[in-house]
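Quick illustration, no need to memorize.
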Amino acid sequence: MPSPAQDGPWLDDAAGRLIRPYTVSGGRTKPTTALDLLSMVMATGSAPQPHMGPEHSLALGLCEGPTSVAEIAAHLRLPAVVTKVLLSDLVDCGALTARAPRFHAQPTDRSLLEAVLDGLRRRL
């Protein structure tokens, strides 16, 4: 029996993933908007287009505040490329804004990477 409250509509406790990720993105593998895993997206308040699926609505619901593409992919339990396609659709219709990641003088700062790793471990 599906457990949508816990895992979303794409997972079933016994069967696993019910919908293949490429189906969620309509078979597309290239987003129309350049998004990095660290890109920040945020809802604009505009509604998505009516033809967009429930996956788009779920993704949009996670973007009330600035949220990284990687974090949205983790919450949706979808591959990053599929998540980028969904978010790109939402940017294209004006429901989301996207901002490229800001790198400091040293983009591979060890303390930053350790903080990210600690955050990921806490979520498990």
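Residues 110-123 form the longest helix (14 residues).
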